[in-house]
Amino acid sequence: MNVTILTLFPExxxxxxxxxxxxxxxxxxxxxxxxxxxxxxxMDRHHTVDDGPxxxxxxxxxxxxxxxxxxxxxxxxxxxxxxxxxGAPLTQELARELSAEESxxxxxxxxxxxxxxxxxxxxxxxxxxxxxxxxxxESAAVCLLEAVGRLLPGFMGKEASGEEESFSAGLLEYxxxxxxxxxxxxxxxxxxxxxDHARIRRWRRDEALKVTLSRRPGLLDEAxxxxxxxxxxxxxxxxxxxxNLYIALVHHPVLDKWQKVSTVSLTNLDVHDISRxxxxxxxxxxxxxxxxxxxxxxxxxxxxxxxxxxxxxxxxDRAKALSLVRIVEDLxxxxxxxxAETGRSPFxxxxxxxxxxxxxxxxVRAQLAKGPVLLVLGTGHGLAAPVLExxxxxxxxxxxxxxxxxxxxxxxxxILLDRLLGDWL
Length: 425
Description:
Blueprint: E1 2-6, H1 20-27, E2 32-36, E3 50-51, E4 61-62, H2 64-72, E5 79-89, H3 92-99, E6 103-107, H4 118-121, E7 124-128, H5 138-149, E8 182-183, E9 186-187, H6 190-193, H7 197-215, H8 227-235, E10 245-250, E11 254-255, E12 261-262, H9 268-280, E13 285-289, H10 293-307, H11 310-314, H12 316-322, E14 325-328, H13 331-342, E15 347-350, H14 361-370, E16 373-378, H15 385-390, E17 393-394, H16 409-421
Parallel strand pairs: 1-2, 1-6, 5-6, 5-7, 10-13, 10-16, 13-14, 15-16, 15-17
Antiparallel strand pairs: 3-4, 8-9, 11-12
C-alpha cells in the first residue's frame, strides 16, 4: 500500500515510521509512506499557509491553495482522508475497508482546521480517531496508519494474532495471562490451564462478552451472537439501571384540551400497560397519583383483583407486573416513598410533548447510575406547569424534531423505558 501524508511537520513521523512492525513493513515493501509539506507549495516568500478566519474569531485557518496544490502533486492519491473531529469514527470496520485500497492520502490539519472548500475541490473523507481535540492531525494519522497497516497481508508476524483482538469480532478482547501461574496471590484462570482447547475458546469468548457488556455495551448491537453468547450475557451479574427507575403516572395537576389545569380519571389500560412495561424493563415500580379518594379506591380494587384475587390465579404474569403499582395522593407522597425505600431523594424527571424539555436520555441514564430517578408522566394533555417547575429536569419530547407529537401516555412510557433501559442486543 502507498500512503501519502500531507503535513506541515513531516519530522513528526520519523520515529513512528522507524520503529517496530511499521519499520519492518516498510523495509519489506508492504507499506510505503511519504510526507508532502503544503508549505512547499505556498505562493509567497514566507511560505505562508494560514490566515485569519472570515467572520472573525480566535485562531488561524489553513489556506486552501497550498493544500490543494500539494494534493495535486501526488501522482496516485487514491482515497483522500482528512483527520477531523467531524469525521466518521475510525472503527475496525473502516480500517479493514481502507486496508483494501491500493493508495491512501492522509491530510493533517493544523490551527483551527483547513478551509472548508477543500472538500468541494477534492472528494475528501473525514475521519475522527475520538471525541477529543488534538493540536493537529499528525498523531491521529499515526493511529490510522497503525490500524490500517496491521491489516495488510504480511504486516503481522502471525496473521491469526490480529483476528482475535478487540473489535475484530465486534467485541472487546478477552484478558490475557502469562507466567507465573500465581502472582501476589492471584492465579491464572483454571480454564486457561486445562489444556482443553474447546474450553479455552469458550472462556475467551465469554470473557470478551462480559467485558464488552460492562464497558462498551453499544458494540453488542452489531456483534454476531449465538445462543450460548446470549446465555452468557443473560447470566452476567450486572448493575441494573432499572432498579433505580420509578415511574409516577400523574392525574393531577394536568392540562385539559383547553390548556387549563384539571384532574383526570385513571384508565385501566394505562395502569396495566405501564406496569407491564416497567416490569419488562426491570423498573422499580409505578406510582398512580390521584387526589380523588374514589379513584384511589377504584385503583385498589383493580389491583387486588390482579394481585391477590381471581386475576392473579388466571394470569400470574399480570400479577407480577401489577404488584409494582402503588397508589398515592400526590407527587410528594411518591417522592417520599422512593426516599423511604432507597434512603435517597429521587432525581425527578418530568416529561412533556412540548419543546421545553432539554435533558437527553443519556443524561437521565447518567442520573440512574448515581441513584433513584422518578420519571413523571402526565395524563390528559400533559403535566401542568407546577409539576414541570418542581422537577429537577424535563426530558426531551420523544419526537423533538417534529411538530406532531401526540402519543398516548402508554406508548410514550414504553418508548422512554426502552431509551433509558433497553438492551443493546
